Amino acid sequence: MSQPVSPIPSDYTAVTPYLIVRDANAAIAFYQTVFGAIETMRIDGPDGKIGHAELRINGQPLMLASEHPEYQALSPQTIGGSPVGLLVYVEDADATAALAVVHGATLSRPVADQFYGDRSGTLVDPFGHHWYVSSRREALSIDEIQARAAAAGDC
C-alpha cells in the first residue's frame, strides 16, 4: 500500500509559471545563463522536443516545454506575444538585464530606480516572454509607497 501524499507538493509555490517555448533547449540555456536557473527535471520527447522540464530560479519553480500545437501549447512567438510578465528578484538588476541583452533579450524598459523601492527594468527574452528584473533597494511601508506613487503621478 502506498503512503498518503499531500495534494500540493511542499517544494512548490502556490502558483508555478509554466512557459511554452519554440526551442526549449535554448530557453533552458538562456535561463541558466541569465538567471542562474538550475534544471531539476527534463522529459525529452522522441522528436527532439522537450515534453516537460523543471527549473529553479532562486529556489522557486519554473516549468517549461516545447511547443505542442496538438495540445494548444503555443509559444508567444507563435501567437504574437504574451500579456503575462514574470518578476524575478536578482542581486543586480542592471547586470542581469545587460547579460540578458547580450544573450538575445530585448530591453523594453530600462533599469531604473522605482518609487516602490526597487531598481527594476523589463526585458523580453528571445522566446517572447516578458521578465521584470528587480533588486530591492529600500524597505518601504505601504504608506511611503503610496505617497511616492502619488508624488510621481503613478497612481
**What share of the residues does DSSP label as strand, in percent?**
25-35%
Q: Total number of β-strand segments?
A: 8
Question: Spans of 5+ residues with little confidence (pLDDT < 50)?
Answer: none
**Helix/strand/pairing category:** alpha/beta
Distance between the termini: 57 Å
Protein name: VOC family protein
Domain VOC: 11-136
Pfam family, one: Glyoxalase
InterPro entries: Glyas_Bleomycin-R_OHBP_Dase, Glyas_Fos-R_dOase_dom, VOC_core
Give structural notes.
It comes from Jeongeupia naejangsanensis. Residues 11-136 form the VOC domain. By secondary structure, this protein is of the alpha/beta class. 24% of the residues lie in helices and 34% in strands. It has 4 helices and 8 strands, in the order βαβββαβαβββα. The chain has helices at residues 24-35, 76-79, 93-102, 142-152; strands at residues 18-21, 38-44, 50-57, 60-66, 85-89, 106-113, 118-124, 130-136. The protein has a 4-stranded mixed sheet with strand order 1-4-3-2, with helices on one face. A 4-stranded mixed sheet has the order 5-8-7-6, covered by helices on one side. β2 (38-44) and β3 form a beta hairpin. The longest helix has 12 residues, at 24-35. It is globular, with a radius of gyration of 18 Å. The relative contact order is 0.15. The mean pLDDT is 94.
